[in-house]
């Protein structure tokens, strides 16, 4: 096993990519690229949000369970003082340093969680119906429209759902649970 | 054949073939097993559970207490109601003697779950439900309409007129309107079987035999729930009323209009309610000879006139006391004189019971209505409306108005002609022998049983139910429950309203376990969590074990090796050269903030705030009770930042525990906790040659003991990827834990394996890890502890700070019990024969002089917590919790193994390298 190749990022769902992409019909399920992500913890009332918005190129969501676009990533508000900030183009440790230094003056901090989760995209008119096979929250477009996100369960796995459009939803899942979630999605898609 | 032309909604152009009790028979699409059998004159389906009496069908739907069958094909299912089984080609069924049998083959059909959200859920697609759904849909609301019958319409027979046209045309028109409406989900063959708080309703959809899925549980969350579930007719109790051929009047009418089946040619109708007259007239019209016995003093004038016009004899003021017949009823015994009136079908109607189950499930109160002679919903429940017959409203025009008013306005209700209403009679039973008066036909329970319960002093219907088992069968007393209340009230001499009725609880009808399980079975039964290196373990032929939801590589057997051989080989490799283990499943928590050290001092028994940046410390966490609940290492990453590791199975619990303290007890601490369990993967490289392997892969790092000491960490890079190296050992050997972002873990695993080749690097699993740590006396929390073990019990007094003023668990250590020298201590056990493997969990007793286990009781000294074969020691050994164990080191005690008493010597926990020389290589 003489392996001298360079350390390479491996997508946790690489072995299931084919099975997911082989699904015919609606919705199409694809793997989102791996992105940098930090868990930001900061008091929302101390001016931190404005400072971060100015530096990161977009407003941070002010309501819990909503998201906004920032620069080349997204800001998802997970709780009263907790956000997930992603960036497609910044290196993980640089992303942590950057957000951390922006939050530090306000008593906030960022922790690198880039490799903690992967994201799947469900695209198609039946995306919400497929998710309803395992998600108990109200996914009707009127209740969970573009701009909403929610931490919930898919089957028995914790997931983070992000609504991009009526027919376009992203599902973040912890890497260790991603195989279970992918298998369950494939299973549910076969049952419709 | 009793099929009548011109009746029924079956498809007579197609013929299905099925087998019942070994005889091949035919049916038509739209038939139930019951209707198909009755159409061919089969009235006896099975025998009763206790007394073996013949059983037919009493009802025509889920209320039927007696028509139980065993399905054999397409898939074995026990005790289904013939009235609810749709005939499909190839159906094989037989009657059951009260009990069926579960399938002995695997069910290949699939069962599914789906979550549904709506503004309005309407349960029941009879006239009230259809109108309620229609009005809600017209108002633009999200509507879910479920109905347990295969087709909508409820109990409408088609003889009624709504808005000037036949009722079933109206039903079709509403169904078509709903189908065309956006935001309406209309599910037939779907039973709402449970109603819970906040508009949560569970419904079972039967998708059809051969469908995929076969059944689906809908988990519906509705803004409002409209219960329009109708009502069931109830019988009257008289002698031998359990005989096949005795049937509810509504059931005979339903069979005629739904299936074109005339259930008898010579019919006696026994009633105290007007509704049975409609059945009498319909059956007469279809060709039966009909006679009505009405226990009321006078027959209702309008119905009596119509009967007279048709030539139907009506006898008011008398009753039915019993039946004659062999299997099937041959005559009704009428009046006190028990006059024999020949018949092959005896219809009964004792009035109606509103199907208010879904109202009752959520705490709705039912009250007895004297005029209705039944229990109906009383009072309002927020978010729930009960309409139509379920509400005790039986006249069609009123039913339609209630349906419309539930979701819109009563003025929009469709029109139906008003009906003549005459007072209902109250009649639970007629005079006769209580031992032959069956109340619950499904349980063979009689009036005599109720009398026994009352005689035993019971005055509550709940007690009577449990004493007599009335209402506890598959039908949950749909026809018998209220009768039991009425008869109990009579026997007690109390009004039935004051006595009340038993509480309805989910499920409304039986639900298969397979449907409740849905897709949560097989590989999807529970999430399987895997590490980024999982595929490598698979490729290496690993056997896995479940740790929490994780799959962890347990050992890597080579061809021909069993677990014992593989583990001995892996242990020897680690102690002799180098091995590598995937430790990625360890819980990891990033603790940040100026007060991070303060928090950790509060939660660990030892001091963490004094740890220097760049160093690592082992720590123990206890609960309030001072018992160990987790342990792990703590790395100080910066002045204000620690990385805490937890045991694999306890990761989420420890984070919750820490968050609870921070949020509820010490909210002023400036500290934040972040789970990074899956962000970082840990590969443990252990063994005397681990320094060589690490040095080869990380050429820039000075791996000497002087530069890289035990319990320190340092950061480096590999191909530009940040990597953390930590000198942590869980084996006692020189070891380095290599941490990398999980994206790169699989590649790093490959790289380390390749680099270790010259030294024979050996992947090792959790079983080997357990042996290696046990040889060093390191406990596994949850294996060597059980929530009753203190750090002192584990010999870890050194890990309990005496300097700290307080920490979680400290106060409990001051309890006298904690100073008891007879507490159980963790010790090692060495079987003196150097050969016996002690089973984990074995008890430990004093060694008797004669070497024989004395008769019980025998004082237990403790038990074996861990037991392994040791490659290093060349013998089996064990860890155990032993009463006062540390003070008995060197003593020989005994462990019963099978019928042998094995002598074992108590020893110190550290069996390998007690000086600790190996950790530095």
Plain-language structure description:
- The complex is a heterodimer of chains A (192) and B (921).
- Chain A has 192 residues and is of the alpha+beta class.
- In chain A, 26% of the residues lie in helices and 31% in strands.
- Chain A is built from five helices and ten strands; from the N terminus they run αββαβββαββαβββα.
- Chain A has a five-stranded antiparallel beta sheet with strand order 1-7-10-9-8. In chain A, strands 3-4-5-2-6 form a five-stranded antiparallel beta sheet, covered by helices on one side.
- In chain A, a hairpin with a 2-residue loop joins strand 8 and strand 9.
- The longest helix of chain A has 16 residues, at 175-190.
- Chain A is globular, with a radius of gyration of 17 Å.
- In chain B, strands 8, 9, 12, 13, 14, 15 and 28 form a seven-stranded mixed beta sheet that branches.
- Chain B starts with 15 loop residues before the first strand and ends in a 14-residue tail after the last strand.
- The mean pLDDT of chain B is 96.
- Chain B contains 21 helices and 49 strands.
- Chain B is α+β, with helices and mostly antiparallel strands.
- In chain B, helix 2 packs parallel to helix 8 (396-407) and helix 4 (249-259) packs across helix 5 (275-285).
- In chain B, 21% of the residues lie in helices and 29% in strands.
- Chain B has six domains: 16-104 and 235-349, FAD/NAD(P)-binding domain (3-Layer(bba) Sandwich); 111-232 and 354-412, FAD/NAD(P)-binding domain (3-Layer(bba) Sandwich), CATH 3.50.50; 427-499, BFD-like [2Fe-2S]-binding domain (Arc Repressor Mutant, subunit A, Orthogonal Bundle), CATH 1.10.10.1100; 534-584 and 680-764, Gyrase A, domain 2 (2-Layer Sandwich), CATH 3.30.1360.120; 587-675, Aminomethyltransferase beta-barrel domains (Alpha-Beta Plaits); 818-918, Beta Barrel (Elongation Factor Tu (Ef-tu), domain 3), CATH 2.40.30.110.
- In chain B, a hairpin with an 8-residue loop joins strand 14 and strand 15.
- Classes of the chains: A alpha+beta (192), B alpha+beta (921).
- At the A-B interface, strand 6 and helix 5 of A face strand 8, strand 38 and helix 19 of B.
